[in-house]
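Quick review question:
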């Protein structure tokens, strides 16, 4: 009689599986909670203790670590000496191992879980059973995911193929690897101080330790990458030393539309990062990871219209992000033109009906606001990975006015900004950080007016912005300008003044700062140094 060992933390579907296995002639062997679940379903199972001859000990810490189980799992069916060893010791084979592990990740995601309780969620016997079965996959089937129970039963009816066995084994090893990664990453957030040991929020220092821990699950395959000949997939999950679970695009819900593409996701990410900078209603329209326009407003609809009309030509076919739920008014504005995709924290019920008029438009909801506090992001280069702390424009979190000046945030020109210019400069500075370098942008206090993105020089960036403004028949007189890094020469500042800006914000720090400040004074501009650069590559 074939034998199946069932020991699962997640009891989903285990009763139906037990019935299916019993109907196919399997002897069921199980442990505590799983045995009770099977019994509640009217299924008889043999206890592990009966098989090993030892009771469960130490509150269940020791129950499956025994040769009666591991010998029956690891015995190679094509090795007479292995089979003889089992017979000599009176042990039987185990043909199927159905195990999933203690819910460590769930416990770790709750910051209120005490350290000692967290330690108890580290499964010992479970991973050993899974690894043993996966190692001997030619003779033993191993299942770690309840979603695979129907496939297992169907395969048993036709004699499981080697490919099926190997696929289950690979999934099992990935399961234990992800489990170990979650434990390692969480323990990196534990602080030991003398006799005291406690959890603390995950730090960037912990995430950028000697070993970078990643545990990512495939969300879905994508049609292709940046180009049709490139394969691509979308992953999410626990990563970067965080004790929490997936967030942002790791938990995104797709409400409607065509299949999301690789470039859609990159653009949605770029747009979401922009609106995260604002507490008030904000919207951004993005193409090719650069903003076409961004704006704030008294409502999501007002913010969206401001962002779209900042460059209506470029906004056609763009990607939109909002930091508020999409209401009916916003939805009506969005569907009035061609938009590829929309992301927001939520979509109101009535607004979904409006958006549904554009059947191909992708609509995504994600709580990306949970990531506003920062974190670590990674990026691949040829043969390696780079990791860095996420850039945050923290110097612009509070309103700017003369009382907020510091050694870094300071007016360096003779003329001080007006109250309205202070608002506009703060707005521009938050936007500039999300435009590909080198960048110079022009704004008023609530929306972008012209964006010069990704140029090889700041003078070129100004010229591109001026060209965009002229195409939109928009004057830049009275605007403010922001540069993501310092002006290395006065020519960039001269170009900004010629375009019509009356105030400028930039990091400062050039060896020619005095020359640039003198140029600003000659033009009668107010100029603020922030002391911090915000490149985006």
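Suggested answer, residue by residue:
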């Amino acid at each position: 009689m074939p034998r199946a060992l069932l020991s699962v933390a997640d009891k989903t579907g285990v009763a139906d599986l037990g019935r299916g296995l019993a109907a196919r002639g399997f002897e069921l062997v199980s442990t505590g909670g799983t045995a009770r679940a099977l019994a509640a379903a009217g299924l008889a199972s043999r206890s592990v203790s009966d098989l090993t001859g030892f009771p469960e000990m130490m509150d269940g810490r020791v129950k499956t670590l025994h040769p009666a189980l591991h010998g029956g799992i690891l015995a190679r069916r094509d090795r007479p000496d292995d089979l003889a060893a089992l017979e000599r010791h009176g042990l039987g084979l185990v043909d199927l191992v159905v195990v999933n592990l203690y819910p460590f990740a769930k416990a770790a995601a709750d910051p209120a879980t005490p350290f000692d309780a967290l330690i108890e969620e580290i499964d010992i016997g479970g991973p050993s059973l899974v690894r043993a079965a996966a190692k001997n996959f030619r003779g033993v089937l191993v299942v770690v995911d309840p979603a695979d129970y129907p496939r297992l039963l169907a395969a048993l009816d036709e004699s499981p193929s080697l490919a099926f066995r190997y696929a289950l084994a690979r999934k099992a090893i990935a399961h234990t690897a992800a489990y170990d990664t979650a434990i390692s990453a969480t323990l990196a957030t534990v602080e030991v101080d003398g006799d005291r040991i406690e959890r603390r929020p995950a730090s960037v220092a912990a995430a950028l330790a000697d070993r970078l821990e990643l545990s990512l699950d495939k969300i879905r395959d994508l049609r292709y990458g940046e180009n049709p000949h490139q394969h691509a997939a979308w992953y999410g999950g626990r990563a970067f030393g965080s004790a929490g679970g997936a967030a942002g695009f790791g938990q995104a819900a797709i409400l409607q539309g065509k299949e999301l593409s690789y470039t859609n996701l990159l653009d949605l990410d770029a747009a979401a990062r922009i609106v995260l900078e604002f507490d008030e209603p904000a919207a951004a329209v993005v193409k090719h990871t650069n903003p076409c326009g961004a704006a704030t407003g008294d409502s999501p609809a007002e913010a969206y219209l401001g962002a779209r009309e900042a460059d209506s030509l470029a906004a056609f076919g763009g990607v939109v992000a909002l930091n508020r739920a999409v209401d009916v008014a916003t939805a009506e504005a969005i569907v009035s033109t061609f938009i590829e995709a929309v992301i927001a924290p939520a979509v109101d019920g009535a607004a979904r009906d409006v958006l549904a008029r554009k059947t191909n438009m992708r609509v995504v909801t994600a709580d990306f606001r949970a990531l506003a506090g920062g974190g670590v992001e990674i990026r691949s280069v040829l043969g390696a990975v780079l990791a860095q702390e996420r850039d945050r424009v923290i110097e612009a979190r509070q309103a700017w006015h003369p009382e907020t000046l510091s050694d870094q945030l300071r007016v360096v020109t003779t003329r001080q900004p007006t109250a309205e210019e202070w608002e506009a400069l703060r707005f521009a500075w938050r936007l500039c950080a999300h435009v590909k370098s080198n960048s110079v942008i022009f704004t008023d206090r609530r929306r972008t007016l012209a964006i010069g993105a990704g140029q090889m020089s700041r003078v070129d960036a100004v010229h591109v912005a001026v060209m965009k403004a002229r195409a939109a028949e928009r004057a830049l007189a009275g605007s403010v300008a922001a540069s993501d890094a310092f002006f290395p020469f006065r020519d960039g500042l001269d170009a900004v003044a010629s375009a019509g800006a009356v105030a400028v914000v930039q990091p400062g720090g050039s060896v020619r700062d005095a020359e640039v400040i003198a140029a600003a004074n000659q033009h009668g501009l107010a100029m603020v140094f922030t002391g911090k650069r915000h490149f985006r590559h």
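Why it works: The domain at 404-529 is CATH 3.40.140.20 (Cytidine Deaminase; domain 2). The longest strand covers residues 290-296.
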